[in-house]
């Protein structure tokens, strides 16, 4: 598993160096629901932080509009998908932030399609970039889920919250 990221970067470099013609890509052919994976010394897990949750990504399809909705953490983000092309193994997605009209380029690469694992790389006009490893919702059961204990974020407040939840559950 420790070689996963370096190997993925080599694949990305190789595919970006090839002189492949871009082909239109139907974004609707990708799975619609994704969950972020976190790399640990023992492998990849689904990590739910007690104060932020975990990144969930959804591809939404309306009649004439496709969007990329990132949610599950403190902030929700929506990007309008303007189009997508495929060059080799890399799918390049052109998107726009609806409120600012700022463009964002996303690159998606399957790391292991049979396991439903891919990497989304984003870079915006303002210079911000990120790389996120994701698993499809239907394949998340193959990865351990770790929920950070409430106490690590909120201390003694968790005792009171647990009492209220126990009351509700009864």
Defining traits:
single chain; 170 residues; eight-stranded antiparallel beta barrel; three-stranded mixed β-sheet; 12 strands
Largest beta sheet: strand ordering: 2-5-6-7-8-9-10-11
Average pLDDT score: 85
Low-confidence stretches: none
Shape: globular
Q: How many runs of DSSP E, i.e. beta strands?
A: 12
- Beginning-to-end CA distance, first to last residue: 43 Å
Order of helices and strands: HEEEEEEEEEEEEHH
Largest sheet composition: 8 strands, antiparallel, barrel
Portion of residues within helices: 10-25%
- Tell me the Rg in angstroms: 18 Å
Q: Helical element count?
A: 3
Which structural class is indicated by helix and strand composition? alpha+beta
Strand percent estimate: 35-45%
Give a brief outline of the structure.
This protein is of the alpha+beta class. It has helices at 4-17, 151-154, 157-169; strands at 23-24, 33-36, 38-40, 43-48, 56-61, 66-71, 77-87, 90-96, 103-112, 117-124, 129-136, 145-147. 15% of the residues are buried.
Structure explained in plain terms:
This protein is of the alpha+beta class and 170 residues long. The protein has helices spanning 4-17, 151-154, 157-169, and strands at residues 23-24, 33-36, 38-40, 43-48, 56-61, 66-71, 77-87, 90-96, 103-112, 117-124, 129-136, 145-147. The strands form two sheets. Strands 2-5-6-7-8-9-10-11 form an eight-stranded antiparallel β-barrel. It is globular and about 60 Å long. The mean pLDDT is 85.
